[in-house]
Design goal:
mainly alpha; two-stranded antiparallel sheet
Length: 231
């Protein structure tokens, strides 16, 4: 099977599973993305409410496991990140289209700036909990999950997504500017078919962004690859 065929099929499987399970964890992304979308035009957003949504979404997708420093904090630890994300300068990242990522220096600069802000914010918190200086950086998995849940601008580079992109060598397994640009190239190369599939991926007033389609498609490929190996 070609990469594009399996990607579309896998993304549809992920989407259909979310629709079939009313309270499934896949819905956590929808809830989080929707409240952050609405907050971008709210003159008085409730940062605590948004932080709670972000925390639950992250917990749904494995970011509050026993080894995570976030487990030692309540949901309000996310409030400064929420405030930063809602700044108008990041409006260009919400629901980001691959063509804008490819063609706009401003978009790429803002993505880099926000990624760095989140990493710099969490780093001292993580070190204080550990009680020592950490030699490793804040997990790109955590940061990209936050970016996906609040802005839908990059896939979450977790284990299954990494395995999915590795199957067809669509891009690198580690998050980087080049890795995301290669994903954008892949989307643009198959834009007609992917946009046709994406138009059917809506829930109420919410349309899935392009990066979410890539996120859930490659995640599903990696998940099925893992469960197949296990069997």
């Amino acid at each position: 099977m070609e990469a594009i065929d399996e990607l579309i099929s896998a993304a549809q499987t992920f989407y259909d599973d979310a629709r079939a399970n009313e309270n499934g964890r896949s819905r956590s992304w929808e809830h989080c993305y929707r409240v952050f979308r609405d907050a971008r035009t709210d003159p008085s957003p409730d940062y605590n409410y948004l932080s709670l949504h972000l925390a639950f979404y992250l917990a749904s997708w494995g970011m509050y496991r026993g080894s995570s420093f976030l487990l030692q904090k309540d949901y309000k630890v996310h409030a400064p990140i929420v405030e930063e994300i809602l700044k108008p300068e990041y409006d260009c990242l919400f629901g980001l289209a691959c063509t804008d990522l490819r063609n706009s220096d401003v978009v790429r600069a803002q993505l880099k700036k926000l990624y760095k802000y989140i990493a710099d914010y969490f780093d001292p918190i993580r070190e204080k909990i550990a009680g020592c200086q950490r030699t490793s950086s804040v997990s790109p998995v955590l940061i990209t999950k936050i970016l996906m849940g609040t802005l839908g601008c990059v896939p979450a580079y977790d284990r299954f997504f990494q395995d999915g992109v590795a199957k067809y060598k669509v891009t690198t397994q580690e998050y980087s500017r080049n890795s995301v640009l290669r994903l954008a190239d892949f989307y643009e190369a198959h834009n007609d078919r992917l946009e046709e599939a994406r138009r059917g991926m809506r829930t109420e007033d919410l349309t899935y962004p392009q990066m979410k389609l890539l996120d859930m498609g490659f995640w599903q490929i990696g998940f099925e690859r893992d469960t197949g190996d296990a069997k």
